[in-house]
Design goal:
It is built from 15 helices and twelve strands. It has helices at about 10-15, 45-50, 60-65, 75-90, 110-115, 120-135, 150-155, 170-175, 190-195, 200-205, 210-215, 220-230, 260-280, 310-330, 355-360; strands at about 1-5, 25-30, 40-45, 70-75, 95-100, 105-110, 140-145, 165, 245-255, 285-295, 300-310, 335-345. A five-stranded mixed sheet has the order 5-6-1-7-8. It binds 2'-deoxycytidine-5'-triphosphate and calcium ion (2 copies). One calcium ion binds near residues 4, 6, 8 and 104.
Length: about 350
């Protein structure tokens, strides 16, 4: 399956402020140059009826919506990341293998749990949609197919709140009439080159020989297009590599070798690292400081935590202790910059067995 959340940032804004639900909603990235300058990040489906699209100038969206009561809200990326993290956690539990590909998209391999039965896959998809809607009030569109390329094209077939199932024997009739731009990776440039070859549909593309495609697009893209136009793809669904550490580093207001002088900066750095952990749904096992001295030498000191943590207070206290110990051990050291790093990251929560036991009582 491929899942893509519908008008994702706009749905997040509607949930944060339900009075928006009845209105056209436009999520804006203000450039700050003038009060109205900037571009549209996304719009809800109500606003799209008026022609509002991602990427158009805010001024243009205001014109398109001047006769209606529309809402223009600034983009709040950190908030969408947190909603996304929670949704991805739900999805991960519904798949044999899971691959998140963007803030609002993921592939779920459900081959094993459905024993390759497409009716069972449809039920699984309905269950996924239900879970995401119940827990996060967000609708999604899902495509189901025998491989990733087909699932991805299918998820875009009937939006919003769609579910499109393409069985192996239906692949050719599903793909044939679609424009080549529906193939993932085919943008404006490839579309233009193909139109010069009189190709606009996937069916027409599938009639081109591999030689001309490789000549026009190079070996790897050419071969990919040849196979994709036939609905062929054997790329497995695989978990993307997880980050192994988060760090933040900054320059002190003044050079110092007094630990207390570093505490305000350490608080800031620790909170920022903690926010990063939380937004990625991860905990850390160890905390380090990175000390850059006035002679520009770089020193690291690290400490294992007693249990997994995401807590800014724990990270801060550990960083303070490490900084104090470092300064005591190096009588000549004068700090210029300081960093905090969380490492040993895992997706587990920071609860110890004991606290799990206690909260279960
Ligand atoms: N996005 C953006 N600028 C773009 C495209 C997208 O800021 N030019 C952001 C806002 C979207 C999010 O990424 O909410 C996901 O992008 P999608 O292309 O999946 O678009 P939507 O989820 O908004 O709408 P759709 O229902 O068509 O998937
Ligand atoms: Ca989307
Ligand atoms: Ca998307």
């Amino acid at each position: 399956m491929h899942l893509d959340l519908d008008s994702f940032y706009a749905q997040c804004e509607e949930n944060a402020n339900p009075s928006l639900k009845a209105k056209p909603v436009v999520v804006c990235v203000y450039s700050g140059r003038t009060a109205e300058s900037g571009a549209v990040s996304t719009a809800n489906y109500e606003a799209r009826k008026y022609g509002v699209r991602a990427g158009i100038p805010i001024v243009r969206a205001k014109k398109l919506l001047e006769s209606v009561d529309a809402a223009f809200v600034p983009m709040n990326h950190l908030y969408y990341e947190q909603v996304s993290e929670r949704i991805m956690e739900i999805l991960r539990t519904q798949a044999d293998a899971f691959e998140q590909t963007s803030i609002d998209e993921a592939f779920l391999d459900v081959s094993k749990r459905t024993a390759l039965n497409f009716d069972a896959a449809r039920s699984a998809a309905l269950e996924v949609k239900k879970q995401v809607l119940m827990q996060e009030s967000v609708t999604a569109s899902i495509g189901i197919g025998p491989n990733k390329v087909i699932a991805k094209i299918a998820s875009d077939q009937s939006k919003p709140d769609g579910l499109t199932l393409v069985r192996p024997e239906e692949v050719t009739q599903f793909l044939s009439p679609l424009p080549v731009s529906r193939i993932p990776g085919v943008g404006k440039k490839a579309e233009e080159k193909l139109s010069q070859l009189s190709v606009s549909t996937i069916s027409q593309l599938s009639n081109l020989g591999p030689a001309i495609l490789v000549e026009t697009f190079g070996k790897s893209l050419g071969a990919y297009l040849y196979r994709a136009s036939r609905g062929e793809d054997d790329d497995p669904v695989k978990e993307r590599e997880q980050p192994t550490q988060f760090s933040r580093i900054a320059t002190l207001k003044e050079n110092t070798r007094r630990a207390e002088d570093t505490f305000p900066l350490l608080t800031e750095l620790a909170n920022s690292v903690s926010a990063k952990l939380v937004s990625h749904g991860m905990s850390c096992k160890s905390v380090a400081i990175i000390a850059i001295l006035t002679d520009l030498s770089i020193h690291n000191r690290s400490k294992m935590l007693e249990s997994l943590s995401t807590d800014g207070k724990v990270i801060e206290a550990t960083a303070r202790q490490l900084t104090q110990e470092f300064l005591q051990s190096k009588p000549d050291a004068v700090l210029r910059r300081l960093g905090v790093r969380a490492s040993g990251l895992t997706r587990e929560t920071g609860q110890t067995n004991m606290s799990k036991f206690l909260t279960a009582q």
